[in-house]
Specification:
This protein is an alpha/beta fold. The chain has one domain: NAD(P)-binding Rossmann-like Domain (Rossmann fold), CATH 3.40.50. Helices cover 34% and strands 16% of the residues. It has 12 helices and 13 strands. Strands 3-2-1-4-5-6-11 form a 7-stranded parallel β-sheet, with helices on both faces. Helix 1 crosses helix 8 and helix 6 packs across helix 9. The longest helix is centred in the last third of the chain and has 14 residues. The chain is globular. The protein starts with a strand and ends with a helix.
Length: 340
């Protein structure tokens, strides 16, 4: 097959490209050239900005891809542009989407009203009622909304789209440093991790980046995925406490996780207004049954690779308020003094 990957040089993208090349497919990547990525030998490259896709439409259409994988499709406008560019050329599209299309995510963030949605969440679970909860609050992402993206790409019958709804993705290349909250404290030799007792019991799905990439590549190369929607998540959804404990095992940290009522925690360790009664657990049975996808990298190995990368690529600076160890020590002293 001939596949075009849009934005395949950051985080998940290089792993997707590698999976496709390893399977013997012809691959080209359309990217800005601002991210350093070692693409496999033989992978074609088109340089350009995603926001100016139409300016490169001629060259991209001449490549005549069978499938287009758009890794950076974030807005309704971009979705309509992609459809216009590849309609009549490609057979179908594959679009990584997000757990944030579900109403459960908005209830967790307290932007949709109502009681918690039952979990696990399957592909038929209700969508959120409001625009993306953080829309307009993240620089450069003012129009971000994966729900509108999905609706746009699924509305074009001549270019059927496969959407893969991902939870929190972790692993090498994670610029959001999703392990930092716990890993930094473990590496700093902290003997205790203070954790909001409500958040400790909260359960959420996650996916290691290489396993997510394998799912995307599988969907792109298996015609049975045409027009389908898939949740992609690890088989075992961990509580926050168990997630920290698994990380501790990989790191070799022998400290204690201390559960604390939220009102007794320092402000920087509280749940931030989240509705912790709403778990965010995805049911990934459909992609496992229909496409035979399963995790290729076990949890412990994925965490080990994630830790190695995180230690080699620390953030430029830490938020001192988020790691206020003096406040944490004072909190623990009060708890110990009260006999908790």
């Amino acid at each position: 097959m001939r596949l075009l990957v849009i934005g395949g040089t950051s985080f998940m993208g290089p792993f997707v490209v590698q999976h496709l090349v390893d399977a013997g497919h012809e691959v080209a990547v359309f990217h800005r050239g601002t991210t350093i990525a070692r693409l496999p030998t033989g992978v074609g490259a088109f340089r350009g900005d995603r926001k100016q896709l139409q300016a490169h439409a001629g060259a991209l259409r001449d490549f005549r891809p069978d499938v287009v994988i758009d890794m950076i499709l974030f807005t309704e406008q971009d979705a309509c542009c992609a459809i216009e560019t590849f309609r009549g050329v490609a057979d179908r599209m594959v679009v990584p989407s997000s757990i944030d299309v579900y109403r459960a995510c908005s209830i967790f963030k307290r932007t949709d009203p109502g009681p918690p949605v039952p979990t696990p969440i399957d592909e038929g679970s209700p969508s959120r009622l409001q625009p993306f909860p953080l829309r307009g609050l993240i620089p450069g992402m003012e129009e971000y909304d994966k729900l509108l993206v999905e609706r746009a790409v699924q509305s074009e019958p001549s270019l059927p789209a496969t959407c893969l709804r991902l939870p929190m993705v972790y692993g090498p290349g994670d610029r959001l440093h999703r392990l930092l909250e716990f890993l930094e404290r473990m590496d700093d030799g902290r003997r205790y991790l203070l954790m909001n007792e409500r958040m400790a019991a909260w359960r959420g799905s996650r996916i290691y980046v290489e396993n997510a990439a394998a799912a995307i590549a599988r969907a792109a190369t298996d015609a049975r995925a045409t027009g389908r929607i898939y949740n992609v998540a690890e088989a075992e959804p961990l509580t926050m406490r168990d997630w920290a404990a698994r990380l501790a095992e990989v790191v070799g940290w022998g400290g204690e996780i201390v559960l604390v009522p939220p009102h007794q925690l320092p402000p920087h360790l509280r749940a931030g207004g989240m509705e912790t009664a709403q778990d965010l657990v995805l049911d990934s049975a459909r992609i496992r049954a229909e496409l035979g996808w399963t995790e290729q990298v076990p949890l412990a190995e994925g965490l080990r690779r994630s830790v190695d990368w995180a230690r080699a690529h620390p953030p430029p600076e830490l938020d001192a308020q988020a790691f206020d160890y003096s406040a944490e020590d004072e909190c623990l002293a009060r708890l110990r003094g009260e006999g908790r």
